[in-house]
């Protein structure tokens, strides 16, 4: 399992639901947390590491006790709006101002197989939305303004060239 970069095709595919939380699900979550930490990220979706199923890991602080694993996450409500600088591990050196809900309510299954609902605000809400976008095959660059997309055109072309090599 390794971090995948744009334009890898799996990043443009919707992730499938996880039917049951198993030992494999827990192993995948642990590996994803490790990859996220090694790359100094705060969130990672299954398809970003070649796992085509609906799982997300988030940790805003880097401390193990703050690991958050969401299996089959679904945003059920959102409110407010905030525009902030955002980046993505699958798009190195590309950041842009993205409008996201300030607060979300997310439904998910935990690693014990229990269905939960949680509220998230500010950076956590942004991370949840970003990672759920990945699972839905919505790339972060699609949320950039046309001017920002144009500004990163060269970097995107470099990523595309590197991928084909």
Record keyword descriptors for this entry:
single chain, 165 residues, alpha+beta, Peptide Deformylase, 5-stranded antiparallel sheet, two-stranded antiparallel sheet, 7 strands, globular
Question: How would you portray this structure in words?
Answer:
The protein has 165 residues and is of the alpha+beta class. It has a single domain (9-164), classed as Peptide Deformylase (Alpha-Beta Complex). Helices cover 29% and strands 27% of the residues. It is built from 4 helices and 7 strands; from the N terminus they run αβββββββααα. It has helices at 23-38, 122-135, 146-151, 153-164; strands at 43-45, 55-58, 68-79, 82-87, 95-100, 103-109, 115-121. A 5-stranded antiparallel β-sheet has the order 1-2-3-6-7. A two-stranded antiparallel sheet has the order 4-5.
Strand tally is 7
Mean pLDDT: 95
Can you tell me the CATH topology?
A: Peptide Deformylase
Could you give the order of strands across the largest sheet? 1-2-3-6-7
Beta-strand content: 25-35%
**Classification by helices and strands:** alpha+beta
**How are helices and strands ordered from N to C?**
HEEEEEEEHHH
Can you tell me the CATH class?
Answer: Alpha Beta
Proper CATH architecture: Alpha-Beta Complex
SS summary, helix count: 4
Query: In this structure, how is the largest beta sheet organized?
Result: 5 strands, antiparallel
Rg measurement, Å: 15 Å
User: Helical content, roughly?
Assistant: 25-40%
Low-confidence stretches: none
User: What is the CATH homology-level superfamily?
Assistant: Peptide deformylase
The number of domains: 1
Oligomer: single chain
Distance, first to last CA = 20 Å
Q: Judging from the principal axes of the Cα atoms, what is the shape? A: globular
């Amino acid at each position: 399992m390794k971090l995948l970069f744009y334009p890898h095709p799996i990043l443009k595919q919707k992730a499938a639901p996880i039917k049951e939380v198993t030992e494999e699900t827990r192993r995948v979550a642990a590996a994803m947390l490790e990859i996220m930490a090694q790359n100094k990220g705060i969130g990672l979706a299954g398809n970003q590491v070649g796992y085509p199923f609906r799982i997300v890991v988030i940790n805003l602080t880097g401390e193990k006790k703050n690991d958050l694993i969401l299996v089959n996450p679904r945003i059920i409500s959102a409110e407010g709006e905030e525009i902030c600088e955002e980046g993505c591990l699958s798009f190195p050196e590309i950041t842009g101002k993205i409008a996201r809900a300030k607060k979300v309510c997310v439904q998910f299954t935990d690693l014990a197989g229990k269905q939960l609902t949680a509220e998230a605000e500010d950076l956590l809400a942004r991370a949840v939305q970003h990672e759920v976008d990945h699972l839905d095959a919505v790339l972060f660059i699609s949320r950039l303004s046309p001017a920002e997309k144009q500004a990163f055109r060269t970097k995107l072309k470099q990523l595309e060239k590197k991928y084909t090599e």
